[in-house]
Amino acid sequence: MNRSLLARMAAALACLSVAGFAQAQTKWDLPSAYAPANFHTENLEFFAKEVETATGGKLKINVHSNASLFKAPEIKRAVQGGQAQLGEILLVNYENENPLFGMDGIPFLATSYDQAKALQQVQLPALDKYLAGQGMKILYTVPWQPQGIYSKKPVNALADMKGMKWRAYSPATAKMAELMNLQPVTIQAAELSQALATGVVETYISSSATGIDSKTYESIKYFYEIQAWIPKNAILINLKAFNALDKATQDAVTAAAAKAQERGWKISEEKEAAFKQILRDKGMTLAPPSATFAADLSKVGTVMLSDWEKKSAPQGADLIAQYRKLVPAAK
Question: Could you tell me which of 318, 317, 298 has the C-alpha nearest to residue 307?
Answer without folding.
Answer: 317
